[in-house]
Amino acid sequence: MSAFSIFLILIVIVAFLLVVVIMVQNPKGGGLSSSFGGGGTQQMGGVKKTGDFLDKSTWFLATALIVLILASNLTIGSGGTVESKALDTNEPTTLPTLPAPALDNSTTDGTPE
What we know:
The chain is mostly helical.
């Protein structure tokens, strides 16, 4: 398994986790912490910090995703060379030629001028 394949698998996993963490959050500040009573003054067992954890995990996963993408870019060339036929200079490229249109000297009703 190449390094690029490993990075690709890690990128997919981190992207999935990032989507899950973002979907758990509520854009109005509620989210997971409000479902456990996070809006009140009394908190049970550290639920007050759930919003902070989700916020920090979002930033961590987003940073990890960017780092993995940049690192995978460095490993693309190490797997071997990729031949491009579009940039092949050995064969000259020729454009297809269309036949010239026949000149018709007739008027719109079909009679010659």
